[in-house]
TrEMBL record:
Gene3D superfamilies in alphabetical order: Creatinase/methionine aminopeptidase superfamily (3.90.230.10)
Keyword Protease included in the entry's annotation: yes
One Pfam entry name: Peptidase_M24_C
Residues in the signal sequence: none
Ranges of residues in domain Peptidase M24: 1-151
Domain Peptidase M24 C-terminal, first and last residues per copy: 158-221
Organism: Nyctiprogne leucopyga
Protein's gene: Xpnpep2_1
Taxon lineage: Eukaryota, Metazoa, Chordata, Craniata, Vertebrata
The protein, known as: XPP2 aminopeptidase
Transmembrane annotation, as ranges: none
Keywords: Aminopeptidase, Hydrolase, Protease
Entry's Gene Ontology molecular function annotations: aminopeptidase activity
Family named by the database record: Belongs to the peptidase M24B family.
Length: 221
């Protein structure tokens, strides 16, 4: 059902999960100190070459936009294509927006922040989602969504970049490492180190050993 970008479940369309298909989980919650909106796509069996390449290229777009350094007051629409470039390289695309503002204990989709033509320029302190995807009608859907904070970059002149605050590993089973650049692999390793450092101790504190060991396996370099 994830082949539909904005699928809504019904009794007539519900399906059982299978290890032979991709599974897209768009999740989130509202808390007193913020709102989350995180999407991960997984495959518990053997993905097809197309599924693996499409997933990897969606991940590449997510990484490329997340690590982008850009001038202050840059409009989101100006840099939105960065998230699509790896897909465009092989003639693929997606038909939804690349990201939207995230409310602080408010709306999950909150204007005026985002990457569309009517969004305001990006400024430090803004939260936005970064969520490229790919969908093949009747077959499968892929989306990788993180919440990112606009922060000041460590540059000589005052430029901006993103700090991803979602701390959930990506599916190693779907990543084709041969497509990733050395810079993208370094970004992934740094991200995984951050997940281990920030989530691992909390799982140990709650005595969630099975979850802790899953996290360690999922964040290996």
């Amino acid at each position: 059902n994830a082949a539909l970008a904005h699928y809504s479940p019904s009794n007539g369309s519900s399906r059982k999960l299978s290890v032979d298909e991709m599974y897209l989980s768009d999740t989130g919650g509202q808390y007193l100190d913020g709102t989350t909106d995180i999407t991960r796509t997984v495959h518990w069996g053997v993905p097809t070459p197309l599924q693996k390449e499409a997933y990897t290229r969606v991940l590449m777009g997510n990484i490329d936009l997340s690590r982008l350094i850009f001038p202050p007051n840059t409009a989101g629409r100006t840099v939105e294509s960065i998230a699509r470039r790896a897909l465009w390289d092989v003639g693929l695309n997606y038909g939804h927006g690349t990201g939207h503002g995230i409310g602080n204990f408010l709306s999950v989709h909150e204007w005026p922040v985002g990457f569309q033509s009517n969004n305001v320029p990006l400024m430090a302190g803004m939260f936005t989602s970064i969520e490229p995807g790919y969908y093949r009608d009747g077959e499968f859907g892929i989306r990788i969504e993180d919440v990112a904070l606009v922060v000041e970059a460590q540059t000589e002149e005052p430029f901006l970049t993103f700090e991803v605050v979602s701390l959930v590993p990506y599916d190693r089973n779907l990543i084709d490492l041969s497509l990733l650049s050395p810079e993208q692999i370094r970004y992934l390793n740094t991200y995984y180190e951050s997940i281990r450092a920030r989530v691992g101790p909390e799982l140990r504190r709650q005595r969630l050993e099975e979850e802790y060991h899953w996290l360690q396996r999922s964040t290996e370099p």
